[in-house]
Amino acid sequence: MEEAIITTSLNPDIYQVERAKELAEKFGFLFVERNKKSLIEVARGLPVLLVTKNRLEVVFSDKTKLYFHPGMAKIRIKGIKKGQQDIMVKAMGLASGMSLLDCTLGLAQDGIVAQYVIKDGLVVGLEKSKIIYVLTSEGLKAYDEDPDLIIPMRKLKAEFGDFNEYLTSLPPKSFDVVYFDPMFKNTTGKSAHILRLRKIAAKDYINKYVLKKAREIARERVVVKGRKEEIKTLPFFDKIIAGNDSEIAFGIIEGQI
Ligand SMILES: C[S@@+](CC[C@H](N)C(=O)[O-])C[C@H]1O[C@@H](n2cnc3c(N)ncnc32)[C@H](O)[C@@H]1O
């Protein structure tokens, strides 16, 4: 779903109104003056991008919210600093100076961890949902809490786009690693965060054609994250790695596909 209304919280200051108008113009959302209207009145059944004093939120018709936050990225970076192994970093074989194309940026938790590890290298993150792209690209610019996260957040390059098209526009061997973390085909309904993301996320899945293209773009490897059970049934991978106590696995393609 790409349409959304953009408005402010009640009693906005002039900066909120200006920011809402600016985002509406930049991304093609409809700006509605809040006045004293309820969000239901403003929403017209669409998701609402709400510019509050402190942040940008998406509010859904059931009043649940989604906003940018580093979430697990913060904990994972703390672990990496202490010398703990991050299974995604291991699967990608990341090291300082490398380049990564993250084809499914989402709220950039994986992208931030990857950018932290590759330091002067670069993560380019693609996101097909305009609403998620706005939350993430604006959030990456605005976050100002943990210094360990600020540097990778400012460096990571978020792009609005569809991996199906983007991959065909790149010359071979453009990135060291190409990564996919598509939405699960079925949701277990465990995480409220994932359920909210699902409402606005693109649900494109990988297939042989996309992975073949990605393998041409990747100098070293293509990595796909998914449920262990799902990844094991896919015929594409040279190697699968997973934590013992996790239902998540990473499929790795290093050879031809
Ligand atoms: C499971 S989330 C990724 C979460 C992300 N790895 C993180 O750590 O925050 C999948 C994301 O991929 C996006 N997506 C799905 N199909 C896409 C496509 N064809 N091109 C770009 N992004 C896509 C969805 O909109 C969603 O935001």
Automatic annotation (TrEMBL):
A molecular function GO annotation: rRNA (guanine-N2-)-methyltransferase activity
InterPro entries: 16SrRNA_methylTrfase_J, SAM-dependent_MTases_sf
A Pfam family matched in the record: SAM_MT
Name the record gives this protein: SAM-dependent methyltransferase
Taxonomic classification: Bacteria, Bacillati, Bacillota, Clostridia, Thermoanaerobacterales
